Amino acid sequence: MTSSKPLHPETLAVSHGWDPADAFGAAKPPFAPSTTYVYPSAQAALDFHRAFFAGETAGGYIYARLGHPNLTMVETRMAALDGAEACAGFNSGMAAVSSIALAFTRPGDSVLHSRPIYSGVDGLLRGPLAEMGVSSEPIADGCDEAAVRAAAETALAKGPLSLILLESPANPTAAITDIALVRRIAEEIGAQQGRRPLVSVDNTFLGPLLQAPLAEGADLTMTSLTKYCGGHSDLLAGSVSGSKALIARLRALRTLLGNHMTSFSAWLLLRSFESLPARQERVLKNAAAVARFLKARPEVARVTWLGFLAEGSPARAVFDRQCRGAGSTFSFTIEGGQAEAFRLLDALQLIKMAVSLGGSETLICHPATTTHFVVPAEERLAAGVTDGTLRLSVGLEHPDDLIADLERGLAAL
Fold first, then answer.
1. What per-residue string of b and e applies to 70-91 under the rule 16 or more CB within 10 Å gives b?
2. Which CATH number is associated with domain 276-411?
3. Which tens digit of pLDDT belongs to each residue from 338-373?
4. Is the pTM of this model over 0.85?
5. 20 to 30 A from 245, CA-CA: which of 54, 125, 221, 376?
6. pLDDT (tens digit, 9 = 90+) per residue, 154-206?
7. Which residue spans of the chain are classified as CATH 3.40.640.10?
8. Confidence label for 2 from pLDDT (cuts 50, 70 and 90)
9. Considering only CA atoms, which of 306, 99, 337 is closest in space to residue 220?
10. Rounded Cα distance, 348 and 183, in Å
């Protein structure tokens, strides 16, 4: 389309990256499962390979691990939604963040990260990266400049700071980090050590419609597309958006690791993107109703829904500037511990007890014994994840039914 006015994200989500003329006028993108593609000539085969390995547009597809039509469509659409020059699609969110870590850190480097951070990323930092000689340091409070600077100094004492991994809002507490603040400090560190650390933001909890990390100063924005963008709990996928140069490095590594997004997952995502704006609007309303109900209950000690951030607080100021909505995944902490949490969970009849989030169905889990089971107890507690903490991902059901089910659970305490 030729227009001087940019399209709204809701419009980009529906059809961007697909031209019906490419497939017999089909209104919807076809599923292209082929693993290999036929060269039109021997010279074309040479030209395709020369271009691909030079990081240029190959002119045609070669082999699905290197790229395929459905992946191109997803990457084009996600880059537009993220406001990025380019995007790389992976077969899961963890594949995406692991590729970032492997591409941009080297032995002896240090990594700075927000806290809490997804347990898979925590395991990556404590396991394979630590074994490779890459150290890590958490930020106690991502909205407090002194806390960010203190953590950065500690990280620098361990080695050159090459990467800053932020998760905002965080899993499962919905803690937020000031991306612009972190970028400013990263610039200062770059001047100090001669190389600026890259800032990467996990945008899974809010997604591209509710937060734009690149516009706030991030170099990369990573999204577990399994969650809200997929939206139906039936696919695994991840993406990283950023500059063409950075994404080219990730795509080159993806070719060697073989962790590309499959054709079927990409095709399903193209379907799911179209309903993302409508689903997002519905779950935001549902989450607000459920959060207000929980906050009013005496059995509930704390609710981390972002809409409850205190006016005048640093976190609220960051939220108002950085986010376009409060999201629909948050945690609440009940009075008591694991035994009480288990009684509540086992009394539920509608809300499904399972990990993951962002699907059409409402999900609940006990992080200390599921998603964050492998995180050391002292780290969980320091991040605000107690034995009484429950994570809730509010879905598309009627809010009255969800509230009635939670009433049933709370009555079991």
1. bbbbbbbbbbbbbebebbbbbb
2. 3.90.1150.10
3. 999 999 999 999 999 999 999 999 999 999 999 888
4. yes
5. 125
6. 999 999 999 999 999 999 999 999 999 999 999 999 999 999 999 999 999 99
7. 46-270
8. low
9. 99
10. 43
For residue 59, what are its two tokens? 């002119």
What is the β-pairing status of strands 363-365 and 352-353?
Answer: parallel
DSSP letter for 58, please.
-
- Return the CATH fold of 46-270: Aspartate Aminotransferase; domain 2 (3.40.640)
Q: Is the dihedral of CA 103, 164, 84, 89 positive or negative?
A: positive
Long-range contacts of 302-307 (CB under 8 A, 24+ apart): 302/332, 302/333, 303/330, 303/331, 303/332, 303/333, 304/172, 304/173, 304/174, 304/175, 304/330, 304/331, 304/332, 304/384, 305/174, 305/330, 306/169, 306/174, 306/176, 306/330
Active site residues: 65, 118, 202, 227
Alpha carbon distance 393, 329 (integer Å): 4
